[in-house]
């Protein structure tokens, strides 16, 4: 039987090059990833890891916990130019043999403190399970939805210009020249849309596949061009072909779709929902404002399901973060008190919103609105309504003050749940 104080001899430290294979194996094992991890996998990750902090929890020379973070910009409400440097956290695992002894707490609190000391105003991550990260001040801030459309699904509406968009059928590798720039241009306007590094494109487009992924599958893709021939949209998909007798029952899974204009986005959807010998289209991680259902003659053909949190955010410097974003909501001031159980980012400030900006100053006045840091972090990117958090008891104050701050924090367009493949 394990000793109650078995955690005392466990060491948490930076990962050395010699530890990397065991570290990657430990991480994959705890995530229940079935494939063998080889030195080639470590080699494949070397460029990505070069600028990242890899932490391990060690029991003797065995890796029993993994944690990885790096500083990376994240778009916040306000449009192009509004972004925050964030502590991007990933690869969080603790071996089943060593769980619930405080190893995650040791790794994450040290990392958040270090990020705060570097002057990084926010941390964010994808949560494997929702109950894990609230205790550390994170709140669900970026959501996605799954849409499933029964095909054929005739369209009843199209935005202006959609008929002038030409959709080319290509393959993933053909997107390499156009997709990265187009994605970057689109993502800067969407809060939470994590920038994708160059190596992401090489890997997902099959040009530098991870070991064991030979990249020989057919990888159909769409490239939308406007009337001038400029690339304005991209979609990538796979088909899961199934036949029973002479009847097809095939699913098309869209893995990525982004466009510079509503016209290009609609043209891509129009192409995908009108394909022959396909019975349903399924797409996960779409932003909550995706227009697909609104294009259809029968919007119920696009059933939304499995909507869920995508990124969780954790403010580390409340005044810097509030001042860095744009504001659409009504002008007005309030004194906001924020409680941070980790003692990193709490305080009381006078927040004044006017002309699309906020000024934030320390205050000793009585607070008009008070909340825990996770609630403010959830609302910060403009998606989670503060009034809903108030209704759940996470935010307190005069209803009118809470409602105004909620309206101020809201933002359009909605957050965007991108994947980054780091
Ligand atoms: C999630 C995980 C990293 C937690 O590590 P850990 O070292 O066991 O966590 P800690 O011991 O520091 O737990 C701290 C607290 O969080 C709670 N907690 C941790 N994981 C939890 C979970 N999955 N669900 C609910 N509560 C959880 C613990 O009970 C503990 O609560 P307490 O302080 O009230 O006792 C680990 O269980 C794991 O690797 N799980 C599988 C992979 C995974 O989900 N990783 C996260 C991906 S983002």
Say how many strands there are: 19
Helicity level, as a percent range? 10-25%
Q: Count the DSSP helices.
A: 11
Bound molecules: coenzyme A
Low-confidence stretches: 1-7
**CATH class label of the largest domain:** Alpha Beta
Secondary-structure class: alpha+beta
Largest beta sheet: what is the strand line-up?
A: 1-2-3-4-5-14-6-13-12-9-8-7
Count of separate structural domains: 3
CATH second-level architecture of the largest domain: 3-Layer(aba) Sandwich
Overall, the morphology is globular
Subunit structure: Homohexamer; trimer of dimers.
Pfam family, one: Acetyltransf_17
Family: Belongs to the acetyltransferase Eis family.
Protein name: GNAT family N-acetyltransferase
Q: Mind explaining what this structure looks like?
A:
It is a single chain. With 422 residues, the protein is of the alpha+beta class. It has three domains: 6-125, Gcn5-related N-acetyltransferase (GNAT) (Aminopeptidase); 145-307, Gcn5-related N-acetyltransferase (GNAT) (Aminopeptidase, 3-Layer(aba) Sandwich), CATH 3.40.630; 317-409, SCP2 sterol-binding domain (Nonspecific Lipid-transfer Protein, Chain A), CATH 3.30.1050.10. The protein is 24% helix and 33% strand. The protein contains eleven helices and 19 strands. Strand 3 (62-75) and strand 4 (83-94) form a beta hairpin. The longest helix is centred in the N-terminal third of the chain and has 16 residues, at 103-118. Coenzyme A binds at residues 30-31, 92-94, 99-105, 127-129, 131-132, 135. Coenzyme A (COA) is lined by residues 30-31, 92-94, 99-105, 127-129, 131-132, 135.
């Amino acid at each position: 039987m394990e000793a109650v104080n078995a955690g005392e001899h466990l060491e948490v430290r930076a990962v050395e090059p010699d530890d990397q294979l065991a570290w990657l194996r430990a991480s994959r094992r705890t995530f229940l990833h079935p494939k063998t991890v080889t030195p080639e996998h470590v080699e494949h990750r070397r460029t990505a890891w070069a600028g990242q902090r890899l932490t391990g929890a060690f029991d003797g020379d065995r890796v029993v916990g993994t944690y990885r973070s790096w500083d990376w910009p994240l778009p916040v409400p306000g449009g192009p130019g509004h972004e925050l440097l964030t502590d991007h956290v990933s690869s969080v695992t603790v071996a089943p043999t060593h769980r619930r002894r405080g190893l995650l707490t040791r790794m994450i609190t040290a990392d958040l403190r270090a990020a705060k000391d570097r002057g990084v105003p926010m941390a964010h991550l994808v949560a494997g399970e929702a109950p894990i990260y609230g205790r550390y001040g994170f709140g669900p801030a970026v959501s996605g939805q799954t849409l499933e459309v029964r095909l054929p699904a005739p369209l009843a509406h199209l935005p202006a210009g959609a008929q002038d968009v030409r959709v080319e059928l290509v393959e993933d590798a053909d997107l390499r020249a156009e997709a990265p720039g187009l994605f970057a241009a689109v993502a800067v306007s969407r809060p939470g849309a994590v920038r994708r590094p160059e190596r992401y494109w090489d890997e997902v487009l099959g040009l530098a596949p991870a070991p064991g992924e030979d990249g020989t599958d057919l990888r159909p893709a769409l490239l939308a061009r406007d009337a001038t021939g400029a690339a304005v949209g991209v979609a990538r998909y796979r088909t899961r072909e199934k036949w029973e007798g002479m009847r097809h029952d095939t699913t098309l899974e869209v893995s990525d779709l982004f466009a510079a204009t509503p016209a290009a986005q609609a043209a891509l959807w129009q192409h995908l929902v009108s394909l022959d010998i396909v019975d349903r289209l399924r797409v996960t991680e779409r932003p909550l404002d995706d227009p697909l259902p609104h294009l259809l003659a029968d919007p119920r053909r696009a059933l939304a399901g499995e909507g869920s949190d995508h990124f969780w955010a954790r403010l580390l410097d409340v005044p810097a973060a509030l001042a860095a974003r744009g504001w659409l909501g009504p002008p007005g001031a309030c004194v906001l008190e924020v409680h941070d159980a980790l003692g990193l980012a709490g305080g009381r400030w006078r927040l004044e919103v006017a002309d699309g900006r906020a000024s934030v100053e320390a205050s000793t006045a009585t607070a008009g609105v008070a909340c825990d840091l996770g609630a403010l972090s959830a609302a910060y990117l403009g998606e989670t309504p503060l009034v809903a958090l108030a209704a759940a008891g996470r935010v307190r104050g005069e209803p009118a003050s809470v409602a105004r701050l909620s309206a101020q924090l809201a933002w359009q367009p909605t957050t965007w749940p991108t994947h980054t493949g780091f």
